[in-house]
Design a protein that fits this description.
The protein is of the alpha+beta class. The chain folds into 2 domains: about 70 residues, 2,3-Dihydroxybiphenyl 1,2-Dioxygenase, domain 1 (Roll); about 110 residues, 2,3-Dihydroxybiphenyl 1,2-Dioxygenase, domain 1, CATH 3.10.180. The protein contains 4 helices and 9 strands. The strands form 2 sheets. Strands 5-9-8-6-7 form a 5-stranded mixed β-sheet, with no helix packed on it. The longest helix has 15 residues.
């Protein structure tokens, strides 16, 4: 996943993601004190319309936040997921991680797989609730209990003060068709909703 595979545009990575927070001071405290990012640019928007702050994520990439005095409050299940992406939460409510069309579901920061245990403990020591390490693989369940050759990403999930779901994600290996990685699923359209609902109902009944 390091080579440029885009024949149209030479996109070299993510420049920045811009999110919206309720309290800029609280956001600055979290991303600088808890996650250790450097605040590198602050803007008071013209006409009293708000603020726009940038945090350095490394590699020329930034995480940005807007604060708008007239912004509406968040709506879990619409603006962001209602719950963690974790086996325990999803077993109780498979829809807890959904958010609305046009929303940002979660933001993943790339880390080394060797650092996940250390970083999980460090986040918990800072008072955060953090999921166990989730090993995403190419099996039918798509989750492995133990590390194996099918695991392609290992992750932990946690929330920021605005309920934004954050992820530390580590690539475990190169993607490979031989290990079950696919890129040929037919993209879904609104016409497929009932088919997927039927699959979800069948899965729920099978789990009972």
């Amino acid at each position: 996943m390091t080579e440029n595979t885009n024949p149209e545009f030479e996109i070299s990575g993510l420049h920045h993601v811009a999110l919206v927070c309720e309290d800029m001071q609280r956001t600055v405290d979290f991303y600088t004190d808890v996650l250790g990012m450097k605040l590198v640019k602050t803007i008071d928007l013209p006409g009293g319309t708000g603020q726009h702050f940038f945090f350095d994520m490394g590699g020329g990439q930034a995480l940005a936040f807007f604060w708008f005095p007239e912004a509406q409050g968040r709506a879990p299940g619409l603006s962001n997921p209602r719950g963690f992406i974790s086996e325990e939460v999803l077993a109780e409510d498979p829809t807890a991680w959904l958010s609305s069309h046009g929303s940002m579901n979660h933001l993943a920061f790339m880390v080394s797989p060797e650092k996940l245990d250390e970083y999980r403990q460090k986040l918990m020591d800072k008072g955060l609730e953090v999921t166990p390490i989730m090993r995403h693989d190419t099996s039918e369940s798509q989750i492995a209990e133990e590390e194996n050759e099918l695991v392609f990403i290992s992750s932990i999930y946690f929330l920021d003060p605005d309920g934004i779901m954050l992820e530390f994600a580590a690539w475990n290996r190169e993607l490979s068709a031989e290990l079950g990685d696919r890129a040929d699923h037919k993209p879904a359209t609104p016409a497929d909703i009932e088919k997927y609902r039927a699959q979800a109902q069948a899965a729920a009944q099978a789990a009972e």
